[in-house]
Amino acid sequence: MERLDGGSTVPPHLAGGIVALGNFDGFHLGHQAVVGQAVARARAEGRPALVATFDPHPVRHFRPDTPPFRLTTLDQRERLFAAAGVDAMVVFSFDAALAALSAEGFAERLAQRLQVAGVVTGADFTFGQAKRGDVAMLAELGTRLGFTADTVGAVTLGGETVSSSRIRDLLRAGNPRDAARLLTRPFAIEGVVQHGDKLGRTIGYPTANIDMGKYLRPAYGIYAVTARLADGRLVQGAANLGIRPTFDPPKELLETYVFDFAGDLYGQVIEVALIDYLRPEAKFDSLDALTAQMEADCAEARVRLASAPASAL
Asked: How far apart are CA 313 and CA 308, in angstroms?
């Protein structure tokens, strides 16, 4: 799997490829359908399969004060694309220059720098300055520039369209299980384990702390989780996502207590998946009360994780 700069010319071995084009934040069922069609066509025609995405997200460029909303980092998307059979990920840096590029200019970049033979998008894809380009224009420009343009319709589940917005709403509502159905995997937060106040150690619950960064903030509270460690092991635990109201000053973190684990995770990159929501955050009057609740939370998390199907972990 290669990662390419969307402003540069693709290497010769990736020229003439079929590219899936979109933001693909979350890489949910709808995104998977678009990428799947691009990969299928590429394999049928003996061509490279590519995915082109944008970073930062266009919303971040136009509305920089928007609260964090990302569902996946570029690293996470790269791994997901690779698992879907993609040969390379092309990253367009979404800056003022790209925002000002005309629809025609963007299509020319696809033809000249990516040297695509075909493009696959969702039916609602827009591009170019002021979103002037749509899928009909992309097909017309492709005919002129020498590539085909195919679209994939919306994917529905339970009678509703699968979308990143719907997934975000479910996570904000404390419903990671339904969000996972649309994602086809649990929502997961990846980051470097950092040193904290080490208060958890004093009450028998040491935690691996991760900054939330640009990720969407799901409902604050306690979750049953799994964690993928740097060495590839998948472990289980319970996590507090929030501001730790019992302690002063408030500090937003994802704090994960890993069951039956002894080791040093500081400085390592781990990925914590939210499997089930247990309860909202609460403020406790004493460390004893907090410790008793944490013991109950961990017991409940073990029950929830044991009853979850393997596909949900």
From this structure: 7
CA distance 98 to 189: 29
Give the ranges where 72-204 is alpha helix by DSSP (H).
74-83, 96-100, 103-112, 135-145, 164-172, 176-183, 199-202
Q: In what order do the strands lie in the sheet with 49-55?
A: 2-5, 88-93, 49-55, 18-21, 118-122, 148-152
Cα 77 from Cα 83, distance rounded (Å)? 10
Distance CA 129, CA 296 (A): 54
Q: Are 228 and 211 in contact (CB under 8 A)?
A: no
Cβ-contact 275, 305 below 8 angstroms: yes
Task: Say which DSSP state 39 is in.
Answer: H
**Rounded mean pLDDT for each run of 10 residues along the chain, 313 residues in total:** 92 97 96 98 98 92 92 97 97 93 96 96 94 95 96 93 96 97 97 76 75 95 96 95 73 92 90 97 82 92 90 74
User: Alpha-carbon distance 181 to 312, whole Å?
Assistant: 8
Q: What pLDDT score does 198 carry?
A: 57
Residue found under tokens 């367009």: 92
Quote the CA–CA distance of 157 and 165 in Å, as a whole number.
14
Could you tell me the pTM of the whole model?
0.92
Q: What are phi and psi of 310, to 5 degrees?
A: -55, -35
Q: What are the phi and psi torsion angles at 143 (to 5°)?
A: -60, -40
228 membership: H or E segment, kind and range = strand 221-228
